[in-house]
Every structure is written in C-alpha cells, then in structure tokens.
Design brief:
With about 1000 residues, this protein is an alpha+beta fold. It has 17 helices and 51 strands. The strands form 13 sheets. Strands 21, 22, 23, 24, 25, 30, 33, 36 and 37 form a 9-stranded antiparallel beta sheet that branches. A 9-stranded antiparallel beta sheet has the order 26-27-28-29-40-35-34-31-32. It has a 5-stranded mixed beta sheet with strand order 4-5-7-6-11, with helices on both faces. The longest helix has 29 residues.
Length: about 1000
Amino acid sequence: MKYFGCILIFVLLLAIDTNPTEAVCGYESCPETKPNMVNIHLVPHSHDDAGWLKTVDQYYYGHKNSIQHAGVQYIIDTVVSELIKDPKRRFIQVETSFFAKWWQEQSETVKQVVKKLVNEGRLQFTGGAWSMNDEAAVNYQSVIDQFTVGLKFLDETFGACARPRVGWQIDPFGHSREQASLYAQMGYDGEFFSRMDHNDKAKRMEDLSLEMIWDASESLGDVKLFTGLLYSHYWETPGFCFDVHCNDDPIIDGDSYDNNVKSRVDDFIAYAAKVAAKFRTTHIMVPLGGDFQYEDAQVNYKNMDKLIKYVNQRQATGSHYNIFYSTPACYLNSVHQGQQSYPNKTLDFFPYASDSNSFWTGYYTSRPTQKRFERDGNHILQTAKQLSVFAGLSSEQQKEDLNYLRQIMGVMQHHDAITGTEKQAVSNDYDRLLYDGIIGGASNARDALRVLTNLPEGEFESCLQLNISECAFTKDGADNVVVTLFNPLAHTSSQYVRVPVKEESYQVTDEKGRVVASEVVPVAWQVLALEYRQNNTQHELVFQASVNKIASYYIKKVVKAESNEIVLPKPAKKSVKQNEGDLEVPKRFKKVHSMKKVETHADEDDSETVVQTSQIKLVIDNNTGRLKTIEMNGVKENIEQNFGVYETTTSGAYVFREVESTEIHPLKTDVEFTVYNGSLVKEVHQQFSDWISQVIRIYEGVNRVEFEWLVGPIPTDEDTGREIVTIFSSDISSNGVFYTDSNGREMIVRAKDKREDFTPDLGKQPTSGNYYPVVSRIALEDKSNRMALLNDRAQGGTSMQDGQLELMLHRRLIRDDGYGVSEVLNEQKYDKPLIARGKVYLILNSVEESTKVERVAEKEILLPFSVFFSKASSQSSSAVAKTVPSFDDFPQSVHLLTLEPFTDDEILLRVENFLDHIEGKVVSFNIRPIFDSLGGVEIRETTLDGNLPLSEMKRFKFHAEGSGALSTEPEYYTSAHRPLAANSSLEASEFSVTLNPMQIRTFIIKKY
C-alpha cells in the first residue's frame, strides 16, 4: 500500500494543475547533454523473462520465490511510484506481455498517471514486442506477429508516445541478421544487445567497433540498422548494483562515519573512463538493472539520484563527466547527432560462445517436441486468422480466443521458451498455455468453416496427434467422413493428405463427386508400439488434394478390392540383431502389410533395391539397408543417410559441449528395412537400432524425399549423455562451405572454422563451434550439384566434411551446463524418457537450377493444409458454401504472409515476394480485387508491424566507413516507394503493388 499511497498523492497534485504543459515524448523528451564532456546515459531497466526458472504467472505474481525471488507486478508498481517523484527520472519497460497484464488490473486513476509518464517520455517502452524473442529458433512470421501484438497494444493504449524506437535484445544467445532486417522494416532506429562471442567482443573492444551498421539483407538495399553491443553484460555495472537483490555498497552521504561519496564517485568515474575509451563518440550508455530488479524501486532511485548528484558536482572542479537519467533511444539519438562513421556488419552473430569451451549451440535443438509444437501453434494461428476474416467472426468469445492464441504465440517466441532453456515445470506450463490457445484457435476455425462451407453443423474436428497417426474422429472407422482442407498459402496447392484409418478399403471423392486416387498405407510398427498410442487405427488413407482456399473430400468404405493383396515384402539381406534389452516388437505388429505386392528392381547380384516414382529414384543398398543413391531433377548423386551419436558429459540445455578428442559415432549396424510400393506413395521403413527408426517416403508428383525419423528413448548412463544427429553424405565437393537460413528468410553463407570478423577459438570444441541454427533449410553445393535439407522445426546443423550435411534431432543429457537453468535436460513424457518424431526433406538439383523449388517447399512445410474432420451427415442440402477470395492471381513468387482481423472494422494484409535477388525479380500486381472482396472502403500502407503509417516512417541513417564523405547534417531513411493510400472511389490503377525480391508490404484495409 505504501507505493500506491505515493501514487495517489501525486495524482492530487496533478489534478491541481489546470493548465498542464503540452506532452513532449520521443526524442524531444531526451535530457540535454553537454559538449566537450563524456555524457553518461544512465538507463534504469529490469530484465523480466516471460518464463524461465518459474512460469510466466509465477514471475508476475511473485510466487515460488524459493526458486527465484521475482515479482513483476511489484516492479511496475514501485517504478511508477518513483517516476512520478521527479520528472528527470527514467525507466524502460521491455516485455509488453507483463505490462499488459499489469495494466488490466489498474484503476483509472493509476492509468492516467502512467499515461502522463509515457507522454512525457519518463516511462519509455523499448523493444515493445510481446516478449523479448529468441533469434535462433524463431521463424520470421512468428516474430512479426508478436511485434504486431505488442506494438498494437501500446498504440491503442497510449498512442504515438509509446512507440518504441529501439530494439533491446539484451539476453538472447546470439543474434540473427533477419531480426535486424525486421527492425529496420518496422521503422526502428537501431538495436542493442549484450551477448557476443568472447573473441569477437575482445577484437571489437580493440578496434572501437562495438557499434556498427548492420547490412541486414542482401536483397533489400536500404535495410541497414545501427547495432550496438553493451560494454558489459546488462546486469553487470561492477560495484554499482543498488537493487535489494544486490550486496554492493549504497552511497552514504551526510555526516556519517561511513560516508563513502568520494570513493563511490571515484570508482564510478574510473569505470566510465574505461567504457568511454571503447566508443567513438562522447556518449556512453550505462544500464543499471538486471533480472527482475526494481522490486523496491525506491532503493534504486535514491542511490542513482545520489550518484548523479555527486558525479556532476565534480564538474565544478574540472571533471568532464556528465551523468543523467536516460534511455537507449535517447542515447541513440545523441549518437546519431554525433556524425561519426561506423564499421559494417554483413552476416550474423552465431554461434555465441561465452568462453573457449562453451558454444551455445545445444539450444538450437533442445526440447525438439516443444519446438515442433510451437510450429503447430503458428499453423493454427494463421489458419484461424484467415478464416476469421473470410467468415467475419465478430463475437467477443471469438475475438478473445484469437487474441489469446496470438499472445501465447508471442510468449512462445521468448528466448527461454522456444529455445528449450527453461526448467521442465515451466516447459510443461508453456505446453499447457499453447494447447489452450490452439484449442481456442481451432474453435474459431470450426465456427468459420460452418459459415463458409455447406456443412453448417459440421464437427470440423482437429486432430493434434496426426504426427503419430492417431485421430479420435476416425479411430472407430472413416466411413462417411468429410475431410475439409484449408490452404493458408496464396496459391492453389496440391498436397497429399494422410488420414488414420482401420485396415479397410475406402473410396475418396471430391466436391463434384469425382473419384480421387487413394490407397491405404500401414503405419510403421515402431509408431504402433508407442505405449501411449491408441491402436484402433494401424493404417493411413493417402490421397492427393488440390486446394485453392477451402475444399472438402468425402471418404466412404467400400468392398475390398482383390488387388489389395497382403504379402510379405522382400526383406533386406541382413537384419539388425535383437540384443538383450532391445525394444521388443509386439506380436500384433510383426505381420507386415503392403499396399500391393512389392516390386523390387535388383542387380544380378541382388545387392540393391530400387524405389521410384516418375520423378525420383532411390537406391537402397541391400547389404547395409541404407540409402545409396538418389536421382531427381536430372541429377544422380551418391547419397548415404545415417544417424550418429555424440557422447557428451557436460552439455546442457544451452551448450553443446563435445568431449575433447571424441568424434561422432555413426551407427554401424546393418539396417533392417521393408519397402511398401504403392501407386501414390513409396515407403522404405527402416530400423537402425532399438531406439532409432525411420520412414523414407516419396510421393508421385512431389519433387522431394521425405525422411520421417523416430528417436528415443535415448539411452544414457551415469557418465554419458547422448545427442543424436542425422547425416547425409554425398560426393559434392563443397570445400567447407554451406548455407543456412536466417529465421526462414534469406540464406547465409557459412565457412567451416571461419567467422566474418574474427578468428574463433575452436581448439576444444571444433564441432560445436561450427554449428548454426537451421530454422527451415541447410544446403551445400559445388559447380555441378546442390543438396538441400528442409526441416519441420528449428534444429542445429553443420557440415563438418565436404559433401556432408548434419542436423541434430534430439538430446538427452546427464548434467546441467552451469548457465542458470540448474536442471538437467532429461525430458520425461508418460513417465519415460522422451521419444521425438519429425521430418527432414531432401531436394537434389543441378546447381544451375533456381533454388525457387526450395522456397516453395519451405512454405508448404511451414503452412501445409489444415485438416478438419466432420461426419457426412452434417452436410445440408440447402446450405450454400460462401465464396472465399482467391489469391491465385498474385504472381507465383508472392506469399500471403498475413491476413487477419486488426480492429472491429479493419483487416491487416501482408504480402511478400519470397524469392531473393538471385532467385527472383521485381513483380507487380493489383490488389483491388482482394480489396473489394474483403469489403474494403479505404486502404493505407504501414510499416511491417502494421502500427505506423509508412508515410510517417523516418528512421536514423548512419554513416558507414568507406562510404564517402560524412554529411554535415543528420540523415534519415524514409519509405523507398510512395506508400499506397486509396479508397473505393479511386481507379483500380491506384491499387497497384510492386514487390522487390524479399520485400514485404503491409496494409490496413478499412471495411464497410
């Protein structure tokens, strides 16, 4: 109550002022600096993780302080009460999710006080997204979404004064180029972070290059962003932590025997001198704060007030240090005014190493099932958003469900969520929150489909366990079932659909009653053997569907055709011996069912099995049971695929730390395999060990090879953890060069054992130090051929040998790595070590061919058809399906990145040219038809996040070294094109949209 007592007193004082001064925020509210002095920008801040050692709610409410003393609601309470005491004080609020929760609980009186603080620039939002997102494992679509959610809340709550101008990524474990690109496209002036490889940082200290200009895109010319590294970590201003969590000496003045003003000021000025020596301007930024600090902000501010007072008093005796409360935005503004040149940065800051034996590359893969679940959340979110627009969903419950899923997806981007670096109890809570959000999103999708289809009473059930071929809706039979498919992509797509069914014969028809080719495929026995799986359905019905936006297919049971003969396929010459303790195959799964008699194509010595469609030919070595060669796209390449094990002792959730002098252990046993040779799909079921199995799959008409892996439970012992990888070895002469994506967007070149700006320390960790995040794709090539792997979730990857690509799939460890989580990464599900299942896709092509096919595949993998099940009896003969807008007229390289309700009468539309400057070209098209079909009356263009009119975008431009003479005046970037603004009365020509390669444009459509 003491905090709100202060607030109420100041509210009364504010009420007396009947002529308040006009609010001044943004850069106009920045404190004055002094020339010819070292200006010290003191930045009070608190870093508040949206889950880590405690859950999001436990952190907010201050629960379970025995784990970590932290209560965010008290931090914001006390900071507000302290800010209103002195107009010079400042504070930055970063995590919008926490602030929004706090805001909802406040009285109107308190809200008015906070609005005044924001309007006067005293409380500044920095970063501004729903959470401080990770930068390694996130997909750009989800990053954009969570910035949209956070910035929209700030804009609707406070207006323009709350808009952040600076990114604040102080805790993520490495930094991506795409994150910087997104900041620039959202109109930010710069970003700051505090983690960088220790060797990189040491070199930059020497070169005065802790601040730089990041060329954040090879395709977008004006996407350059000022980027600065904090001198010290965000929680370390040595000796000057005045928080109640700290033990540093307070500043003691007056007549006390313990008066320490002189020594405290001496020490601080000495520290400031060290900092100033490493920067190029007369301005330095000194953050004061740390994890969950300022819970009793009076202590912090009382000591900071004294520090400012006594440091500045020294100016009277010749000191050239000037200190004041500031913010990162105000610091950046001063730097911009300083007219200095800065070095360029063109790649990224991965991998991050905190010391010579610690590359933080394990978290690229940690908690693989959680990483996949997050992708499922994004999938249903995009589906629910688009369907909500098409169906005009507007009830409060529907809006609440959609907003909840948006917000939970924002939390999942947090740098201790999707990274897998949280405690197990917190991971369980993330799963709970995301599951609830997905259920709400699926409910919205169901409501929309009842409006948009001729199934007004359709169940439209979603099956969340299709990854293990399980669906409650079809477990008792798929007779008279309607499969409704929604395509989130812009263009009509043709994809294969798999429905868990009993071993029966079915016929599939489309909406016009035409029979669609289909077949029944057996589920791998290793999946059926999962103890927690219901085994009503042991097969899958496979058919190919073509969908513009919404289409339904009808399944009915038919009399079994004689041609569907059950036979035992030809086994491999050698089989894996069952050792004692190996997984026992239940008797009911030992009988192997095939779609039809297997046809094998073998050489005279019977050493090979050939599996092929009209587009792809696979050769399996019968002696080893492994893949031997692949032919596709006119290219033939020797490609062997295997699994390998890193035995580790000190890896943890963050760090992949190999044992010195210990190399990877590839699986050497021969592989037992079985071939299923259908007309639509060919499958090779492989058993590598008692805990690793796989299905290699090729579909007729699909130009990629699918590898569906099943790994676990990973064995461990007292001294050895294990990290499991899949390895693809080819004869491609890649010369140590490979490529990985940046958050699912542009590709970045990687050179084994090398970095862009410094020499890495790889003496102890040569493999870990060559690992990079792979969100969607990793590839290598030579002068002839190119091999690319695409994945279904974020993973770590590398190329340690020429022609070889490696992805880490799963990890089970025995020790914590010592970086804060204080818990072993040893996931348990159903009281047993975690089993994970996922997919990797391979595309082999001539290097002369465009990588566009990889881009298209990425989109289909990230956003495949959403599948919904209903009973045919729910169909109404009188119901007429509502016409849904078609985006097929968009150029083929244009992606429908976002279509969602923005406000009650507005729709947000994002379109993207997803090809880069090598793959694609400038495209132009007209969005008037879409505008009209969505009921538009006005349209305006915004920055990427949707919350700032593009016409108002004006961001700092900094001078790069070697780019000519410095300007005499500060420079700015504005929109490189005329922002689109039109209404329904204008000619269609006013709705023309041009997209350069990799360009995203964002529009708000006001509807009737």
